[in-house]
Design a protein that fits this description.
The complex is a heterodimer of chains A (131) and B (285). Chain A is mostly helical and 131 residues long. In chain A, 53% of the residues lie in helices and 2% in strands. Chain B contains ten helices and eleven strands. Classes of the chains: A mainly alpha (131), B alpha/beta (285). At the A-B interface, helix 1, helix 2, helix 7, helix 8 and helix 9 of A face strand 9, helix 7 and helix 9 of B. Bound molecules: fe (ii) ion (FE2).
Chain lengths: 131, 285
Amino acid sequence: MPADATPPLQSPGFDLDEPGTYLYSGRASTRGFRLNRFALSLTKPANREAFLADEAAYMAGYDLSEDETALVRARDWTGLLKAGGHLQAILKLAATLGLNLYHIGAHNTGTDADSLYAMCPRGVSATPEPE
Amino acid sequence: MARIVGGLGISHTPSMGLAFDAGMKGEWEPAWKPWFDGTRPVKEWLADLAPDHIVCVYNDHLNHFTFEAYPTFAIGVADAFPQADEGWGPRPAGGPPFPPVPGDTDFAWALTEHLIRTESFDLTVCQELALDHGVYSWLPYIADAPWPAPMTPIAVNMIRHPIPTAQRLRDLGAAIRRAVENLESDARVLVIATGGMSHQISGTRFGIANEDLDRYFLANLKDNMPALVDLPQTEWMRLGGTEAAELGIWFAMRAALSDRIDEIYRYQVFPKITGCGVIAFQEPS
Ligand SMILES: [Fe+2]
């Protein structure tokens, strides 16, 4: 990186707190159960087609809340994770839309997918303390 | 008596698979070519070793199992294990898809019987199981289709906490060893464990890459596993990203081997967002 360029993101920290990390707990899994069931339905090609043809009609079949539907419509990837969406489930929604992991990560980190891609791997160094 | 002849630990990640498919069309991404080159010796070693069976401890990523029922441990007992559709369709895109990984139900049932009844590992038995990039991403790097030996996959929950402890994963490996040695055939068995090394794919820590941690892990796996097992899983996640917890799966492979093994090969690189490493051990003949 040239000397005058400002790094767009801080180096990743060594903690497990939000928004650095969304640790996927049982509670998150309960909160996101219907959202994940919807997203995981998109591993079937016919379902992907149906969703792309009419998002609202497709989502109506999955018992989602208004907030959840709005998060999907807004492609609010960070909001979807906070609502209990599992990254691996939400990734199926991104895949259906022709997007990938970097689009979700970019939304999480407040950058765009190309910049994030260029930035990875984001190297850090630490090993466990010797006893 | 059947016996375990070797162990292989190897990383997995979706992009590893996609990079392979592009590479086979002569379009290697520069970031991924070193991993291809670095796995050539493993492919040769595996061809020479020619195991009769592979037991593969891996983790699914919401591609076969869903939250309606997500098993903590599950074993595949089927004639074949096809690729799961992860949302982008079967690989390689545009080409004939990889053939299913073959299974051997006689072998798998005998293993299941011993693991559940003698070792008290209460595995969920899956007579239908699609494998995701947890297996299909690295498999074409180390073998050509049709795949060289039948596989018995054992799936571990790494998707939602609570995940199994490192100690339990090590115990699973030791149980697999006893289960194999209990078989009446004279099969030669390879145990593979797969999990990404350091990585995290959500939150603002997206893309964290700790190569020193990955090297530390590989350097200690053969002779110093107790120190690795004793390190709290939250420490692996804190230092290497949440998905570094998958390294715990590698303990099952190491624990399935004796202390007389030779380390045949080790390689580590960090192409993009997942630490990629491979380590091969062989038992004395
Ligand atoms: Fe994984």
